[in-house]
User: Fold these one by one.
Assistant:
Number 1:
Amino acid sequence: MRVLTVNAGSSSLKLVLVEDGARTADETIAARGEQLDTGAVARFAERGFDCSSHRFVHGGGRFTTATLLDDEVREALGEIVDLAPLHTTLALTAVDALRELDADAPAVACFDTSFHATLPPAARTYALPWEWIERFGLRRYGFHGLNHGYVARRAAEMLGRPLAELRIVSCHLGAGASLCAIAGGRSVDTTMGFTPLDGLVMATRSGAVDPGLLIWLQRHAGVTADELDEALEHRSGLAGLSGLSGDMKELLAAVDAGDERARLAYDVYVHRLRSEIAAMVASAGGLDALVFTAGVGEHSARVRDAARRGMPLIGRAQVLVIEAREDLELARQATDLLGLAK
């Protein structure tokens, strides 16, 4: 069974060919603005595949499970591009390119938000006017769900225990970062919200900010909505505070060289991370495993140690480092949906 997994970022596309649960080929294609080299996609796909599985960051309120990508679904996804414009635009371009190459090969859409469809009402509901919630579908959607789901199952395998009895906090720490409280294999809380801007301090994103502060900037400093969007997404986080970089390795080098702003950026990052881990432990009802994953989570022992230092809530929980493998989760969901799993 050869599954071509298609993982759209905000400016690049990761293609991985998964055969019988193992990665056999991969390639990352950078996009220029919103333009994707569809010829490169076609050349990679010429290796041959039985089906394709596509990561979509946002499924809105409609898509809460892996879904066959037929014409109706393709059209519906086009209607919710505004929920994650950069990622979804690139993902749909790849869908169309593969359709043109092989119209008969089934395609499956998998959603980062799906894993968080199990959030209880208390965890997913914003305390906003009820008419807004109903009219606009406002709720905490959560993201990185494909990887949070994968690492939860992998943690259960590593510990030799049933997933149903585990309480896990998954720390997806990359350029984008989020935590997830997982109890009995289900997402019960997470740090990202209606958009991926909420929660932890990230490479270039702010994470949680007092909404009153943003209103103040609009009223008293004349900052426009577009300016806020650009600043919160691209000029905040570690890069914004340090004035140097959102890359953790570069930031730590600057900390060690005595850069005070780099030190402040790192301290703010760790402070938010520790407080949010504690909140996730509370939501999970305790902790059996603390999992670190994604670029920073996997490769920075210093961040992992800082996150755990002096945290009595962690207690005797197992601490695991698990490689992010969204490609395997995309392949699993596609084969399950299509009835092709062995």
Note: The two ends are 9 Å apart (CA to CA).
Number 2:
Amino acid sequence: MRVLLTGGAGFIGASLLQTLKPLASKIVVLDKFSDYYSAGYKRARFSTLSEGIDIELIESDLSTTSLSELFAKQKFDLVIHLAAQPGLRINYPVSIKYVSDNIAGFANVLQASLESQVNKFIYASSSSVYENSISSIYSETDMLQIPSNIYAKTKWINEVLANEFIGKSNTSILGLRMFSVFGPWGRPDMAPFRLITSYLTDYVFEVNNNGSSRRDFSYIGNVTQMISNLLKLERMPQGVINLGTGNDRSILEVIEVIERVSGLRVKIKSNLEAINEISATKSDPSKLNKTIGKITYVSFEDSIAETIFWAKSKGILENLEGWINSV
């Protein structure tokens, strides 16, 4: 396959590179190395995780770049669109990036993919689209309301746009609703990264809502395995699919696992201000299991241990706090 991977310097994109290596004859990565968090961290991540892979890296802004010439030249078989402005709590005026990156950028890549008739177009949606779901376990069949959060809203719009073109071209289209992905080289705005940093350094983790918020934390190694199995299917499903474990844990439970695995105490303080966020996210993995078959995943405890091992390594440990402060 000839593959275009957007957001290839991001956490999930860069972690997917080794998975793509044996499947692709050509890998082109598009990334603008945004400053939402340290661009230096992104470059270090990309350099490390792309080692030994022949990749053409193009630095560009997808919301403004014409892609017609690139697609005509490369004749991609597969497009994996992961580039986006992440984060749920960015305020105006920075929040305008959600519109340019997550809607304009998405539409640009989708249009180029359809016009060049790529075989498969896979894009990153988010579990945040379930914001107003009345279900306690999120299923792809849930009737969704428009989310109130602007990030979640842009991901919901991505799904609406993608669904409009399913069946109207030869391109198979699949959105990945990912649930709280963590692990080595993870995003420094995410709770597991910050919690592990708080026991390794002087950083103090601020616990919101008494640590009661529950998330379906999904280890990056498990997520790349899910995607790998989807890519190997002769017929890829269309629409959307959850990439989650089906197990949720509170922040306090995550802290307990980190302390048990590490033998050290996590430094925390309570945020007395109530944070308006989804109280719990939990994936229904039924469709995923039916599609790719049940596979053995790395356990949550082993996932935390592997992330701690990475965080303690040379070149990482001394930079953890700086990367957190770059957000």
Note: The two ends are 36 Å apart (CA to CA).
